[in-house]
# Entry
Amino acid sequence: MARLNIGIAGAGIGGLAVSVALSQQGHRVRIYEAASELTEIGAGIQLTPNPTKHPLGWGLGEYMPELDGNATQLHVRRWRDGSIVGRMTTESHRERISGPYIQVHRADLQQSLLKIALKDGVQVYTKSRVANYDLSRTTRILEDGQETQLDLILAADGTKSTARRLLSGVESSPVTSTGHAVTLGFESLLSNIRSRETKLSGRSQNVLKKFKILHMLKAAGKMSKWSLQFSIPLERWSSELGITCLIGDAAHVVPSFLAQGAAMAIEDAATLTTLLKDNQTVADIRTATRNFEEVRLARKLEIQNLSLHNLHLYHLKDGKEQQKRDSLAAQSEELHPFRGNPETQTRVYDFAIEV
# Structure
């Protein structure tokens, strides 16, 4: 295997995951991040069994002991009164599907991946936005005009990635909003519940009008709101020479209704690293990135379709269809129909990389 000089645009979960996997394979890896410091917005995320085995193999368990499995049950509750519509124990899940089922905060996962990357010799440059790419050769151009020659460039900088725009051939490839998520300030929530006092900013008042979960939102105080998005995966994820390649949300945005966003980025990292293990020439790199597209596209389309189906299920209006959904969930120990039937769950959560 030839040792490659690899550049990665973006230090989110996808960028850091692939940097760790590639550096541990012996490659020289640099990350170029636009932000002045590494921070992760969002809140808690689920990591299902399909991605967790990879970070454990990379040594993430040393920094995140919860990767051995900290979630015991998953509940879906009725919006009107909080009653349980369906539930699943992770113990019963593990009887059929190997691997831990965990809950983590995005920031904790990102910072832990960063620690491993730095320990493994990955160089991380902040305030270094990749403004342009020369797709005819392995050159990336920083915002300040600086150029660097690399063997392979991976764009892991999300839906606004310059490489995504160049490879798709359109100024702004379509990204669709599926709604919004709101993060509540938990400490503030507890404090206000205890004191029965509420102080809200103007922005929080606007959120209150839209969501109408008055007693909880009032108590939460500080809130963060962001758009939930998805996009149809691009047909082309790599340049003609195969030496610039999209990864994670830059290539695909998975809807947030099957807990597979971070999972897909980690699977991407593990798959691409596996495909690159026998590279010797530029032609080998091109073959690896083309195979990466082929292997991952089919997987992403299935996950996206299942996620969109859940988008529909989670937002049914009260009525006969909603009652049928709730009845099915109450009879299931595996959160059917929200998690699909057992065959679907096996395909999603017991996924093995085959290249």
About this structure: The longest helix spans residues 282-314. The chain is about 40% helix and 20% strand. The first strand starts at residue 5 and ends at 9. The two ends are 17 Å apart (CA to CA).
